[in-house]
Amino acid sequence: MNDEVVHGIPSRHRILKEGDIVSIDLGIKHKGLFTDMALTAGVGAVSAPVAKLMQVTEQALKVGIDAARGGNTIGDIGEAIESYIHSQGRYGIVEVLAGHGVGKYIHEDPFIPNFGKKGKGAKLVPGMIVALEPMINLGTKNVTIDDDEWTFRTADRKPSAHFEHTILITEGDAEILTKI
C-alpha cells in the first residue's frame, strides 16, 4: 500500500481508504514453470501526482517491453525505461529491485534493472522468458526494509507504483504471457 514498494504483509487491521494505492504482485506456478505479474490500482479517487505516477510506471513497462527483442541487450531495456521515466518528471527509479528471468524458479538470471546503457549487458535471445517490472517512487529512489525483513518501503515514505509482465523474447515484438 502507498509507500510500500513490494512485499507488504496484509492484515485485517490495515484498511484501504479513498485515495490509497495498492500494488498486487502475483507469481503463479503451473506445470513446474512460473510467471510473474503486478499492477497498481487506486482506491477511489487518487491525487493527481499519484495518478500520474501510476500512469508513468505502467507506460514505462510498455516502453521496456518494446525494447525487449532478440538481439537487443539488458541495457537496451533499462535505458528505454529510464529515459522514458526521466522525460516525465522527477521520479525515483528503484535500483535494488528489478526485473528478472523466470522459469523453473520465480527469480532467475538475468537481473534486469530499470536503468542502464544501450548496448550493455547480456544479449536477449529468442525463447528467453523474463519479467520486466518498473518500480517507481514519487520521491527518492532509496528504499528501506521493515522490521518484518520482507516489506520494502520508500525511504521518504512517498508513494510507489509497480507494474510487471512476464514476456517471451522473440526476434520481433515480445509476447506478453501475463495479459489480463
**Main sheet properties:** 5 strands, antiparallel
Shape assignment: globular
SS field, number of helical segments: 2
Number of strands: 13
What is the CA–CA distance across the termini?
21 Å
**CATH superfamily membership of one domain, which one?**
Creatinase/methionine aminopeptidase superfamily
Side-by-side strand order of the widest sheet: 6-5-7-12-13
Please identify the structural class as seen in this structure: alpha+beta
Q: If classified by CATH, what would the architecture of one domain be?
A: Alpha-Beta Complex
What percent of residues adopt helix (DSSP H or I)? 10-25%
Rg measurement, Å? 16 Å
Poorly predicted runs: none
Mean model confidence by pLDDT = 96
**CATH uppermost class of one domain:** Alpha Beta
Describe the structure.
The chain has 180 residues and is an alpha+beta fold. The protein has a five-stranded antiparallel beta sheet with strand order 6-5-7-12-13. Strands 1-10-9 form a three-stranded antiparallel beta sheet, with no helix packed on it. It has a three-stranded antiparallel beta sheet with strand order 4-8-11, with helices on one face. β12 and β13 form a beta hairpin. The radius of gyration is 16 Å and the shape is globular. The two termini are 21 Å apart. The model has no long low-confidence stretch (mean pLDDT 96).
Report a brief summary of the structure.
By secondary structure, this protein is α+β, with helices and mostly antiparallel strands. The chain has 2 helices and 13 strands, in the order βββααββββββββββ. It has a domain at 48-125 and 132-150 and 159-180: Creatinase/methionine aminopeptidase superfamily (Creatine Amidinohydrolase, Alpha-Beta Complex), CATH 3.90.230.10.
